[in-house]
Specification:
By secondary structure, the chain is α+β, with helices and mostly antiparallel strands. It has one domain: Aminopeptidase (3-Layer(aba) Sandwich), CATH 3.40.630. Helix content is 25%, strand content 26%. It contains 4 helices and 7 strands. The chain has a 7-stranded mixed sheet with strand order 1-2-3-4-5-7-6, sandwiched between helices. A hairpin with a 5-residue loop joins β3 and β4. It is globular. The C terminus is likely disordered.
């Protein structure tokens, strides 16, 4: 899948929220848990992050009442990096199934810019998805447990009024 600018009208019914109890309930009831790329329990991971890392971030991606995707991570202690621990798409009736990774990455990168992180790192990405992350601009970092993307530094021109040169 090539990463390109996406037409926002395709996402008109899209909503992004925190992972609430309602999201976890929808996860348990709506998702068929056959084959999964993320091999951990969202409830347990979320509870651990809430206790140990109060600066964690999470997102639930919705289409109307259907939970389409989940993502979880947190910034480094100095906020120079934002780590993405997991991204997972609803394997069933999901109109955004092929778009969950791009949506989660774009939202994560915007959040990283907001907290002034310089990099976004994917922690232990599933091998089957590495090519998708590379297409999104991420590079493999030794010891092959991470994929990282350095966010472009934004520069702004400043005009000094009344200054003599």
């Amino acid at each position: 899948m090539a990463f390109r600018k996406m037409d926002a009208s395709r996402f008109a019914p899209l909503t992004i929220t925190s992972i609430t109890e309602h999201a976890l309930s929808s996860f348990r009831s709506q998702w068929n848990h056959g084959v999964r790329f993320v091999d951990w329990a969202w409830e347990d991971e979320l509870l651990t992050w809430r206790k140990k890392r109060p600066s964690y971030w999470d997102m639930a991606i919705w289409h109307k009442q259907t939970l389409c995707g989940l993502a979880l991570g947190g910034p480094s202690r100095r906020r120079s990096r934002l780590y993405i621990e997991g991204i997972e798409a609803n394997p069933e009736n999901n109109p955004f199934k092929s778009l969950i990774i791009p949506i989660a990455l774009m939202a994560s990168e915007r959040y990283a810019e907001t907290i002034k992180s310089k990099e976004v790192w994917l922690v232990e990405p599933t091998g089957a998805l590495v090519d998708i992350y590379i297409q999104a601009g991420y590079t493999v970092r030794p010891p092959n447990k991470f994929l990282a993307k350095i966010l472009r530094a934004k520069t702004f021109a400043t005009k000094v009024v009344g200054a003599s040169v």
